[in-house]
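[step 3/7] fold_predict: job queued, chain A
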Amino acid sequence: QVQLVESGGGLAQPGGSLRLSCAASGFTFSSFAMSWVRQAPGKGLEWVSGINTDGSDLYYADSVKGRFTISRDNAKNTLYLQMNSLKPEDTALYYCAKALHGGMDYWGKGTLVTVSS
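[step 4/7] structure written:
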């Protein structure tokens, strides 16, 4: 079955960096676009970033553009999100999601990122 397992979250100071990973299994990872989505405490879901199957097309929300970088390693079935210049408003539960027909059909359980001094 499809499994997406996020890791790499934790506590970071404002201006700091974290790198999230998402290990995928149960499907042909290289055949599907992937996304990162986050949910801040008490708020709704916010799409953060997306990547196509071979990593040649990258997409970002305006709120993270220039600070976050999405990438993937199809040989390792792993999705990444490098987060730099972190801000307190980046505090959220970060999910990776498998794309399907313009939407997302499978989600991980999330990894918590807290940005605070």
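[step 5/7] annotate
The chain has a mean pLDDT of 97.
The two ends are 40 Å apart (CA to CA).
exit 0
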